[in-house]
Amino acid sequence: ADNFIGDSYHIPVTHISATRTGFTGNRGAVIGPNAQRRRSFQVRAGDGHGVITQLNPDVDFRWNPEEHPDINAYEKSILEEVERHLGPRAKGIRPGVGTVFPNLSFESFTFRVWHPRGPDRTEVWSFAYIDKDAPPDLKRTMHLYHQRRFGPAGAF
């Protein structure tokens, strides 16, 4: 769970294959000449709790618009509701990753529970979630994305 509260530097190295193939939906967005400038913040709440997020009101959403136009369009469509519930600053904050100590983490549209199973083993339970009011096609897309990215044979 350490990667979820302060280890963002591992992404370009550990996940480079998934990024270069475009599997992540962020082809070239994390590293290289196509990288977008990102203003990332690490927030430490103490006692093992923390979050990494981005304040990027001028940078497009985390999904590659060519590869995931439906996800991008949906996230843009709910910005007014986000502002209504959370205030104007919330519109510019992009979803991030985080951990609630000792073993609950979140990233994208997933929650993960980390279960130690021995000195060298950890079992991870991964749960996907999406807005119940999202269109059915988008729910299917996100379900497949979760399976391919975070499932037993996933790239992350």
TrEMBL record:
Pfam families: Ring_hydroxyl_A (PF00848)
UniProt GO MF annotations: 2 iron, 2 sulfur cluster binding; dioxygenase activity; iron ion binding
The keyword Oxidoreductase belongs to this UniProt entry's keyword annotation: yes
Domain annotation Aromatic-ring-hydroxylating dioxygenase alpha subunit C-terminal: ranges: 1-142
Record keywords: Dioxygenase, Oxidoreductase
Keyword Calcium: no
Stated name of the protein: Dioxygenase alpha subunit
Organism, as annotated: Australian soil clone OD19
